[in-house]
Amino acid sequence: MLDPPRLEVAASIKLCRQAGIRVIMITGDNKGTAVAICRRIGIFGEEDDVEALAFTGREFDELSPAEQVDAVTNARCFARVEPSHKSKIVEILQGMDEITAMTGDGVNDAPALKKAEIGIAMGSGTAVAKSASEMVLADDNFSSIVAAVEEGRAIYNNMKHIFLTAALGFPEALIPVQLLWVNLVTDGLPATALGFNPPDLDIMEKPPRNAKEALISGWLFFRYLAIGSTVGAAAWWFVLSEDGPQVSLYHLCAADNPDFEGLDCEVFESPYPMTMALSVLVTIEMCNALNSLSENQSLLRMPPWENVWLLGAICLSMSLHFLILYVEPLPVIFQITPLDTTQWMMVLKISLPVILLDEVLKFVARNFLDFGNERTEKPTPRSGCSLACLEGISWPFVFVSLPLVLWIYSFDTNVTAMLWP
C-alpha cells in the first residue's frame, strides 16, 4: 500500500528553501515513515544523515532545554509527537524571533494553530482547527501556501511603492490649481495602477523580511531622498539656469541687484517657466512610476508592459496633461501656455535621467546590499559573466527604448534662449 505525496509538493519545498522559508514536518507517524516521506519531497536529501535532523516526541522530551533549542534550530522532522510537542516547538521558534506558520486539520492541532503567528487549517479539517486558524486551505494543497507567500510579498512591496509619491513635488514652483491637478489627477492614476504590479522575478529567492523592520528602511529612505532631490532640481532647472534670472531669496530681497541688469520685469510674468516646471513634474512622475514597477528589478528585465494597467494609466495621465495645455480655455484656467516640440524635447531630456538614477540604485541594492540572512538555497552559478549579465534581458524593450532615447538627446534644445529673450 502506498500513499504518495502530491507531485507539486517537492517543487514547492524547493521554492520555500530558495525563499528562505524553513519547512519542518511534524507528524504522529512512525519516524521511519516520516523520514522516507521527507526524502521524497525534498526536506531531506538522499545522502543526508538524519540522526540530528529527525526526532521522535520521546527523544525530544529526553533532551535538556538547551538541547531542545538546538534540536528545533536544526531539525527538519519530528515524528510520533503529541499536541504538547507541537506547541513546544512553536514556542521555541518564537523565542528565537522566528515567524511561524503551522498547518493542521485535527482537534489536537488547535493549540499549536492558535499559538503560531499564522495558523493554516485544511479545508477538509475539523471545525475546531478552522476556528483556531487565520487561514484555511480550500484545496488542501501545500503549494497554495507558497503561492500565498509570493502574493503577500508582492502586496507588501506594492504598498511601499505608494509612499514614493510623498517625495515628489516642489509646490513653490506651482500655483494651487496646478498642485491639485498633479496630486488628484495625473499622479493618482499611476499610483492606483501600481497596485497591480506583478511580483518581482526573485521575490521567492529572498529570505523572509524581519517582521520588526520598518516599512521604510534606511536604504529606501535614501532612495526617496535621491529621487525627490532629482525631481525638485528638475522642476526648478529654469530658475537657476545660467541664461535665466537666477532667482533666489537673496536676489529678491537685495536692492539694485546687478544680476537683474538688462532684464525687465516681464521675465517674471512669462508663462513658459511655470508650464515647463509643471510639464517636467508630470513627465518625471510618469518615469518614476515606471521605476516603481519593481523595487529592485531593472526595467531591462521587467519591462513596462509587465503591468499593462500602469502603461494605460501613464498614457491617460499624459493625455489629460496635453488636454490642459492645448484645449481652450484650460490653459487660461491653469495659467500655462502650449509648448512646442523643442520645449517638449527639453522636458524629456530633464525627466528621463531619473530612470537611469533609479536603475543605478536598484543595481546597488541587488548586488551590494544585504537585506537579510543568506538564502537557504542559492541558484546554480552561471558560467561566463557576460552571459549571466545578459540573461533575462527584454531585448524588445532595449530595441525600442535605446534608439528613442538617443534620438531625444540628439535634439538641439537651447530652451533658455526662448524663455529669457
From TrEMBL:
Entry membrane topology: Multi-pass membrane protein
Stretches that traverse the bilayer: 214-239, 308-327, 385-409
Species of origin: Dissostichus mawsoni
Alphabetical list of NCBIfam families matching this protein: ATPase_P-type (TIGR01494)
Source lineage: Eukaryota, Metazoa, Chordata, Craniata, Vertebrata
Protein localization: Endomembrane system
GO molecular function, one term: ATP hydrolysis activity
Cation-transporting P-type ATPase C-terminal domain boundaries: 171-364
Protein name: P-type Ca(2+) transporter
Keywords tagged on the record: ATP-binding, Calcium, Calcium transport, Ion transport, Magnesium, Membrane, Nucleotide-binding, Translocase, Transmembrane, Transmembrane helix, Transport
